[in-house]
Every structure is written in C-alpha cells, then in structure tokens.
Amino acid sequence: MSMAHSSDPEQISALIEPGRVHRRVYTDPDIFELEMDRLFGRAWLFVGHASQVPNPGDFITGELGRQPVVMTRHRDGTIHVLFNRCTHRGAKVVNERCGHAARLTCCYHGWTFDTDGKLVGVPIPEGAAAGFRMSDFNLAAVPRVAQYRGFVFASMAARGVSFEDQIGPVKGSIDDLVDRAPDGELAFDMGAHRYAYNGNWKLQVENVLDSYHVPFGHASTVNKQGVQFARREGDKAGAKVVEADKNTTKTAASWRDRKGYVSGNGHGWTSNTILDEGKRSSPAFDDYKRVLVEKVGAERAEQILTPRLHNTLIYPNVSIMGLNIHVRVIRPIAVDRTEVIVYPVRLVGAPDAMNFGNLRLLNVTHSAASFVQTDDVEAFVRAQKGLASRATDWVDISRGLGSEEQDREHNALRGAAVQELAVRAQYKAWLGYMREAA
Amino acid sequence: MAGAATVAVSEPATRETFELFIIHEAKLLDERRFREWMDLFTEDGTYWVPASDEQKSPFDHVSLFYDDRALMKTRIERLEHPRIHVQTPPSRTAHIVGNVLIERANASTGETLISSSVLMAEFREDTQRLFAGRQYHRLRLTPDGFRIVQKRVNLINCDGAFDAIAVPI
What we know:
- The complex is a heterodimer of chains A (438) and B (169).
- Chain A is an alpha+beta fold.
- Chain A has 2 domains: 45-148, Rieske [2Fe-2S] iron-sulphur domain (Rieske Iron-sulfur Protein), CATH 2.102.10; 164-434, Naphthalene 1,2-dioxygenase Alpha Subunit, Chain A, domain 1 (Alpha-Beta Complex).
- Chain A is 26% helix and 24% strand.
- Chain A has 13 helices and 24 strands.
- Chain A has a 9-stranded antiparallel sheet with strand order 14-20-19-18-17-16-15-24-23. Chain A has a 4-stranded antiparallel sheet with strand order 6-5-4-7, with no helix packed on it.
- In chain A, strand 4 (58-64) and strand 5 form a beta hairpin.
- In chain A, helix 9 crosses helix 10 (298-305) and helix 9 packs across helix 11.
- The two termini of chain A are 25 Å apart.
- Chain B has a single domain (4-82, 91-155), classed as Nuclear Transport Factor 2, Chain: A.
- In chain B, strands 2-1-6-5-4-3 form a 6-stranded mixed sheet.
- Chain B is globular and about 45 Å long.
C-alpha cells in the first residue's frame, strides 16, 4: 500500500494503533510537512515569557513551527506576537535574537513598523502604486495570543479551542513553578541552553514524561548505591533510581512507584518522589526557605517546597521541569533535525545564591555538555537511525495499555510513570490535529 | 617534553614555560587522561565554557561548562562509566593551541593570566566537527609547579545550538 503523499484522514489514522505507532510518523518528510500545517499551524504554542520583554520596545525573536516570529512589548505595555516577515518583499525584519528598538525597520528597502506591527514608514512614498494603502501592509499578527502568569502562548489558527480549554488542568504545573518564587514571579533573564540532534522532534517530546528510560539510559549518572547525583541545591543525596545490588540493574521500587498523569490534548505530568524527607538544607536553601516563609507563611511554604512534579509536558512544544527547574522548548527543524532551548528560571525574590544553585545544576543536567541530557540525545539519534529499518513498520508504545485509572482529584488519567500512558495520549492528540485539514 | 608538574619553582617563568604548560594540558585531553587533567587544577579551580559572548559571570547566566572540582570529578567518573551512551564509541580529539600571550602577572598573588587560541577537532560516529576560540588560563604557582585556578574557553559559537558535547574542550 502506498501512502507516500497522502493527507487523507483514513490513511493518517492508520499510522496510529492503540499500542503502536507507524515508523513513518518519525521518518516521512511529507508527514513532517503536514505536522507543520496541521499541528504546529494550529496548536497553542509556547512563544516566550513576558519577562523577556520587560520594557516597551523590547523584543525577542523565535519560531512557531518553522515560521519566524517576533514578540514585542509595545508602548502601551501590551505584548504582540507578529510574523517576522516584511509585508513588502518578504525579508525577515528583526534579525537579532533579542534587543530593544523604538521601531522595527526592514534592512532591504527600509520599510519601518511600529512595535505593534503598524507600518509607519515607506521610503519614497510618491512612487507607490495608485490605491496603495499603508494600513494594508502592517506586520501580520499571529491570530491568537494568550498569557498565563507570564507564559505567552500563541496559535497561528484564527479559530479553534480557546487557550483556557486547551491547557486545562496542566495549568497547575505553571502555578507549581511560579509559586516557588517568593515574589510569585519568574524571570527568564539568565540566558538559555541550546542543543540539537539529528532526530524527529517527537523523540524529545516523548522523552520528557518517560520515567522508564532513566535507570538504563542514565546509568552513567547513577552511583554504586543506585542513586543519581544530587540535582538540587541543598540535597544531600539524589534520587534512588536503581536497587543497590551490583549484580542487577533492577529499577528501584521508589522509582517504579512514580505516577504519570495525562489530562487531554496531549498534556501530562509525572509525579516526584519525596527525595529528602524534609532534610534538604544548605545555607542558600535555608535562606530561600526563610524568605519564602516570610512571604507566604510556613504552611504554604511547606506545600510549595514538597516535591510533587517531576516533569510536565504542555503539548506540543514546551515542558516544565520541577526537579532541577527549567522551561524547555522543542523546535522542529526537519523530519530528522530538532533544536531544544532550555531556559533557566530565576525565582524573583529568592536569594541570588539559591538562583545560582539552580543554574549550576541546570548546566550539568541540560546544557549541550551536560551529564544527563547528552545520553537522551544519543538515544534520539540512535532511534532515528534504527527507524530506517523496515524489519517492522511499528514502534511499540503499549506498556500499561488498558491499566490506566481515572484520577478524579487531578481530573486526569493515571498510570505508572514507567509505562507509556503519556506517549499514547500524545498520539491521540496528534491524530486530532492531523486528521483535519488546516 | 616538560610537563606541568616538572616546571621548577626557581625557574623564571617565560612565555615558553606557559606555552609548554598549555600544550601539555591539551595533550592530556587528547589522550583522555582526564584524571591527570583534573589534577592540573587547584583545589578551588574551575573549568568554565560560557554560553554567551563576553559573558561576565557564571553566576547569573547559563554556561556550557562551569565545573568546580566536585563537578569535574562527577563528569570524569561518568566519562569512565561503561554505559555512557554518548561516548559509545568515544570521541577522538585533536587540539592545537597557539598565539600564547601573557596577559597579566600578579606578583602578590603569584597568579598569571595566559591567553591562547584553541582549535579542537572532534571525530565520533562518522562525523567530524570543529570547536574554536580563545582560552584564558589563570595559573597559580604552587610548590608542585603551576596549577590552574580557572580555565575559561570563549568559543566563537558559544551561543549556538550544539549537538551533544561529552568531552571538555
């Protein structure tokens, strides 16, 4: 059966079965093109954080799917997400990754736009064609933009599910992170790690909620006692990953007990185990805790500091890590090439030493030269290579199939985090986007 | 060749002294003698590869590497681990260091800042790539010879997106 160029709903549906996925979803350039139109062209995508454009005239540039956009702060304080493409001959208008400008001027013929996208200047205006109206040539705005506690999301589709309905209960993971800041606010102002790999974007997306790979995939970070190196400021020990028995690589019981949750639209999160039983302590952590208690009270501070979330995925392009805290953005480049941007988050109001403690650990877990993420990246590259094989067309995602439980408290489906509930939920959402023409 | 540990305290340190030190350090990395490489650092020594151009501090901005001795040791234990997937097979590297300059010498602290150009070719899994930049070694004279208080490598593509990096530059 040839499906090479098909975008027919029935043929797309045939790529996803209850416990398996066709290899073409990772390898077929036509599927990738369709994803850019139907999935990235419609979904609510993370664009950036309001703290990246604190003052009027500030901007950052990036991509939604593969399309260049610029996020600006206008004079009236509003945030705009604009397609970064001159309305004249198509050149990318803003070239810097971030900066400040009173006006945005295209380098080619000098067309000039205000920071809300309005065209305000065209050189040699007397040469314009009869009927040319500047107001027809404003920078195109990304149709829908929404903000939640500083996180800016946008959808390139004019119509569709609202942001509130789309994100659902997973909004709680943003709260979990933001509430850790004594001032209740995050700042994305400590730069970003960038790594890339020769593999499909979904390999990274699937990985963030995959607790199954940790004991083996990250074996090189686990010591003889089965404990991964401490990943948080003030931790005396890291997480117990493997049973302490030199004759086995058996996953530790506490690791197996971690839970995974999915809440619809491809979103989900994994729970954390209590790592330290309240013993977490260091000068920086104790100082941070004191400041937090002053701001929110002892009881609330205790809740905030109790680890509940390991990783959260807001499908399809952003994850929030609650362990060594950061926000990670997945950027598809080609069917077999992906870039990932990892933002450290500064907890506003926390002592500098605490924020440095978080930053220092993020360098060793998620920089391009880190101890942890490099082994994941190696697995993604090998998956892409292996999937060239036609030994079978199917990728197995069946672990725990049929054993999911309703979790009323979280308004989600629950399973063991070492199973593949989350991947199946991602493909359910994937099909929802991909079956329908954009 | 004169190794780092063999530079006698009584000898006047010339540009060549420092050049030999840096050549020796690069050779240890190319030969994957990571523990000997770590021993070139003082107990309070750090290895820093910034992730932005003209980065002022490792404390308020991400870095590709910012390892103190404890993190260096964890990194090296991992490099020696049989299941470090990203080094199966291992990288081969070839450094060339040159254009060595004595930037600053501080008589009171006994520290000297040396700058040099560095190129590192890396080959792994049928792919060769090149790292390039200028590196700064802050060296302290100890009874054992010169030791590194800080090695900082300013890569020209420090803020680019990198495929996985497993070995120090």
